[in-house]
Amino acid sequence: MTLEQVIFILVSFLTLGTGIVVVTNRNLFHAALAMMASFLGVAGLYILLDAGFLAAAQLLVYIGAISILIIFAIMLTRRMMQAREASFNSQSGLGLFTAVATFALLAAVIGQFWWGVDAFNGRPDVPDTVLQNTVSSLGKAFVSPEAYVVPFIVASVLLLAALIGAIYVAWPTVHAEDEA
Amino acid sequence: MIPLSWYLLVAALLFSIGLYGVMARRNAVAILMSVELMLNAVNINLIAFWRYGSVLSPATDTPTTGWAWAIFVLTVAAAEAAVGLALIISVYRRRDSVIAEELDLLKN
């Protein structure tokens, strides 16, 4: 077993172990901290896949922004910091069955098509220059009419709409009038 | 040498964990966190296929499809988290609760 495989297994255990903590821990704040660790593990997987820029984006967007948002929501809503109530609903057995069945289906597909295929046994050798140019070619692809300029603009409109919508929905006075 | 299937298995496991969380948790914030885990699992798949797929497509034209989609997923996840948390705070103001089972405003 090579060093790379050992690192992969450790990072995967970090990701999956903290992922299990996220869905099972009764204390939501601890679950949010575990979610940050899980995102860190995913960033480690990106680095193992030669996608350093995405790992940095993962750190900034998920750990820096989304986790902080979620922790704010946990602290802004009462009764969530303490775990006095049941954290699972009555369908949790059915949910567990569905999750296991989904994993079995996915694992069967993976085993059928990608397990032990020689071509996918290791990362293909690509010159370092090509990998280093990925970020610049991605930037060009985002503004090129032949590639992703339309989805890029739609994504920016989506972010703007989400921002305005979030402010509108969370604005206190709007609903005070409704209920009066 | 890490086979592609290892990455796919890790992503499938993370997706299933998130799916269980979405179906079984009562708290709306916990459901949102589980959805984020599922989105991350999809991103691992996208990047793994990008990296290993360069076997199939020539390395001369750097394929950026996987990256572009991963970044779009990241963007949509950020928008989804912002709107979802605004909704949770708004619902909490009205109902004093964020338990998904107790939200039955549309029922009657």
Largest beta-sheet details of chain A: none
What value does the Rg of chain A take, in angstroms? 21 Å
SSE order of chain B: HHH
* Helicity level of chain B: over 70%
Interface with most residues = A-B, 97 and 77 residues
The count of domains of chain A is 3
User: Which descriptor suits the 3D outline of chain A?
Assistant: globular
Indicate the mean pLDDT of chain A. Answer: 84
Residues in β-strands, percent of chain A: under 5%
What's the helical proportion of residues of chain A? over 70%
Query: What are the segments of chain A in which pLDDT stays under 50 over at least 5 consecutive residues?
Result: none
On the 0-100 scale, what is the average pLDDT of chain B?
Answer: 84
CATH topology of chain B: Helix Hairpins
Taking all Cα atoms into account, the compactness measure Rg of chain B is 18 Å
| Fold-level CATH name of the largest domain in chain A | Four Helix Bundle (Hemerythrin (Met), subunit A)
Distance between the termini of chain A: 68 Å
Task: Give the CATH level 1 class of the largest domain in chain A.
Answer: Mainly Alpha
| CATH H-level superfamily of the largest domain in chain A | NADH-ubiquinone/plastoquinone oxidoreductase chain 6, subunit NuoJ
- At CATH level 2, the architecture of the largest domain in chain A is Up-down Bundle
